[in-house]
């Protein structure tokens, strides 16, 4: 039983390196040689765990999904308010810490970007996870259209940065996240007399 943890640790080190390569140097540099260099593992060691780039990309996606699902579950479990709990958890998990920036965000980007660039057919698990999230969001505590609008707002911000369409000011991102969280509590709702700013 002794070698098993070490084997698993090596696998995670390789995945960390692959995410780092994509996040910092771009998907074109996701080669076994570069991953081995960043992971400080032999190329043979990388190939032992991931015989093909497709296998490596698939593992990156699986870990991304697992991390996100865990983040949503933890956010929901720590929330004592039942109304809007699930969509609030989704927003908080998507925002991460700090909001939509930082190492984990870049690593998640790396996983998704690698899959899109190399093996778009491997995105089916992401689609399934997205469908599960939508079912969770439509939990009956908020109007499903309202909850979906909140979801699309946070997804849109995440995807815009994920595909390098736009880089938002960190303060603006934080403010948007906070406003969406408030909306899930039916607070700070737009006031038409104030151009959509919250009513006092």
Question: How would you describe the overall organization of this protein?
Answer:
This protein is mainly alpha-helical and 200 residues long. It has a domain at 54-187: Orthogonal Bundle (Tetracycline Repressor, domain 2), CATH 1.10.357. Helices cover 69% and strands 0% of the residues. The chain has helices spanning 3-25, 32-39, 43-49, 53-77, 85-95, 103-118, 124-137, 144-162, 170-184. Helix 1 (3-25) crosses helix 2, helix 4 packs across helix 6 (103-118) and helix 5 (85-95) runs antiparallel to helix 9 (170-184). The longest helix is centred in the N-terminal third of the chain and has 25 residues, at 53-77. Mean pLDDT is 84; it is low at 1-5.
- Return the CATH topology of the domain at 54-187: Tetracycline Repressor, domain 2
How many strands, what sense, and barrel or not for the largest sheet?
Answer: none
**CATH top level class name of the domain at 54-187:** Mainly Alpha
**Structural class, judged by helices and strands?**
mainly alpha
What is Rg?
19 Å
On the 0-100 scale, what is the average pLDDT? Answer: 84
Total beta strands: 0
The percentage helix is 55-70%
The number of helical runs is 9
CATH architecture of the domain at 54-187: Orthogonal Bundle
Give the topology string: H per helix, E per strand: HHHHHHHHH
Q: Strand portion, in percent? A: under 5%
Shape: elongated
Low-confidence stretches: 1-5
Termini Cα gap: 62 Å
């Amino acid at each position: 039983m002794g070698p098993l943890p070490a084997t698993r640790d090596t696998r995670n080190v390789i995945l960390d390196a692959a995410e780092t390569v994509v996040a910092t140097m771009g998907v074109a540099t996701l080669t076994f040689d570069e991953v081995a260099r960043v992971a400080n593992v032999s190329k043979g060691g990388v190939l032992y765990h991931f015989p093909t780039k497709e296998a490596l990309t698939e593992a990156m996606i699986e870990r991304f999904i697992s991390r996100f699902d865990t983040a949503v579950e933890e956010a929901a479990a720590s929330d004592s308010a039942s109304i809007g709990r699930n969509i609030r958890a989704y927003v908080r998990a998507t925002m991460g810490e700090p909001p939509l920036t930082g190492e984990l965000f870049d690593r998640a980007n790396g996983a998704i970007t690698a899959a899109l660039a190399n093996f778009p057919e491997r995105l089916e698990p992401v689609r399934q996870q997205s469908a599960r999230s939508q079912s969770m969001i439509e939990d009956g505590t908020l109007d499903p259209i309202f909850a979906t609008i909140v979801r699309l707002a946070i997804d849109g911000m995440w995807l815009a940065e994920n595909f390098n369409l736009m880089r938002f000011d960190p303060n603006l991102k934080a403010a948007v996240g906070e406003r969406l969280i408030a909306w899930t509590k039916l607070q700070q709702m737009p006031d038409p007399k104030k151009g959509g700013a919250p009513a006092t």
